[in-house]
Every structure is written in structure tokens, then in C-alpha cells.
Design brief:
Distance between the termini: 29 Å
Strand order of the largest sheet: 3-2-1-4
Number of strands: 4
Number of helices: 7
Strand content: 5-15%
Order of helices and strands: EEEHEHHHHHH
Radius of gyration: 19 Å
Length: 219
């Protein structure tokens, strides 16, 4: 999912004003990099809203059709697809809307395999206490390493832990709540080494500190 975005350079304290015409959303950025990140997150939030409302998501316009009269502006494409599903998973787990996110993630995975989406699905099953599905989807996430941007080391540690629990017939209780992904993971073993085939992959998923739950930049 890629949308054309207009970046306006201003003299304001937050110098970049950002428009996404196809989705009718706007935001700001402290730098061009921050403006791109904020544009991506605003696109994600809008997509989430449309998904939850079961409203058709607008198609992206051709880049050449986006016109601005602002001489200090430029138009560029910004992608925001899997990130939207990550954010939606976090939001739904915080609100306990597990049936909705299970349906959305499984529908998307019917179209394509994606390591990040399998990991999101695993987290949902952990939340509701379904140990077998939690384990299965962790395995699926690791089976798709090139689309898994979460830490593979941590995903492997989670998988080893749940397999040990299943082997002892231990019960994983449903979670009363869920923290952010990066805060809830088990501690990493300093002596644990990734397998060579994963060494060139991206490592941790980190949240933008300028982003809050409402999709707005912190003041």
C-alpha cells in the first residue's frame, strides 16, 4: 500500500507540514525523516479506521496527478502496509477486540505469507491463551524470515519456551492485558546465537517516540 504524499517546508517550529490527499489526512514532522515516519503512521491509522468501519480503502493516485502550487513543497510516495496491521494488532489487544483482529490477520494471510503477520497472530493467540496456535504461528513466522522484522532471536526464544511448556502439559493462561511488543519479550540470552541464514535480517522493531496512540506527534 503506497500513497503519494505532499511535504511542505514551512517556517514553523515544526517545519514540515504533510498531506496525504487520497486519505484526507495531515500531520507534521520535525525533520524530513520524521515527516516521512509521521506520514506513514497517519496512513496506517487511517487504514485501520477504514478496516474497522468495513469501508473501502481508497486507491492511491498516480504520483504525476498530485499537483501543488507551493514552491517549497515536493511530492513523494510513502509505503504503509504491514505496519498498519502491526498497529491494528496492538490497538485490538489493548481493547480486547481479539475476534476482529483474528479475522483481519487471517484474511490477509490467506493472500500472502508474511513473517510479521504470523508473529502478530501468534501474539493474539498468546493473549487469549491458545498455546497450540501460539506455537504454530511462531513457527510460521520463522518459516518466513525475509518478511520477519521482529527480532528473530526473541521469536525463537518464545518458541522454545512455549514448546517446553506444551511438553510439560502446562497451561498458558489468557493475558489480562498486553504491553508493547518490545517491552513484553523475555530477556535475551547473551550466549544465544542466531542461525547463519538469519544473520543479514533486520533486528528489533522499534516504535517512533514521536508517536502516541492517537496517531499524533507528541508536543
Amino acid at each position: 500500500m503506497v500513497y503519494p504524499v505532499i511535504f511542505h517546508k514551512t517556517k514553523d517550529k515544526v517545519p514540515y507540514f504533510v498531506e496525504v490527499p487520497d486519505l484526507d489526512v495531515m500531520t507534521q514532522g520535525k525533520s524530513i525523516q520524521n515527516a516521512i515516519e509521521m506520514a506513514r503512521e497517519r496512513i496506517c491509522i487511517k487504514v485501520i479506521q477504514l478496516e474497522k468501519e468495513k469501508t473501502k480503502i481508497p486507491n492511491a493516485s498516480e504520483l504525476s496527478t498530485i499537483i501543488t502550487n507551493d514552491k517549497n513543497a515536493f511530492v513523494s510516495l510513502v509505503d504503509a502496509d504491514i505496519e498498519a496491521y502491526k498497529l491494528l494488532t496492538k490497538i485490538c489487544l489493548k481493547t480486547g477486540e481479539t475476534e476482529e483482529i483474528l479475522e483481519i490477520l487471517n484474511t490477509r494471510l490467506d493472500k500472502e505469507d508474511n513473517g510479521d503477520l504470523y508473529y502478530c497472530l501468534a501474539r493474539v493467540y498468546k493473549y487469549i491463551g491458545d498455546s497450540e496456535q501460539y506455537c504454530k504461528n511462531l513457527e510460521q513466522a520463522l518459516d518466513n524470515p525475509y518478511t520477519l522484522t521482529f527480532s528473530k532471536k526473541i521469536v525463537k526464544q518464545e518458541l522454545e519456551y512455549i514448546k517446553e511448556m506444551l511438553g510439560r502439559n502446562a497451561v498458558i493462561e489468557p493475558e489480562a492485558g498486553i504491553e508493547e511488543y518490545s517491552e513484553e519479550e523475555p530477556e535475551e540470552d547473551e550466549n544465544y546465537e542466531d542461525e547463519p541464514e538469519y544473520d543479514d535480517e533486520a533486528d528489533e522493531y522499534e516504535e517512533d517516540e514521536d508517536y502516541d496512540d492517537d496517531g499524533e506527534e507528541d508536543s
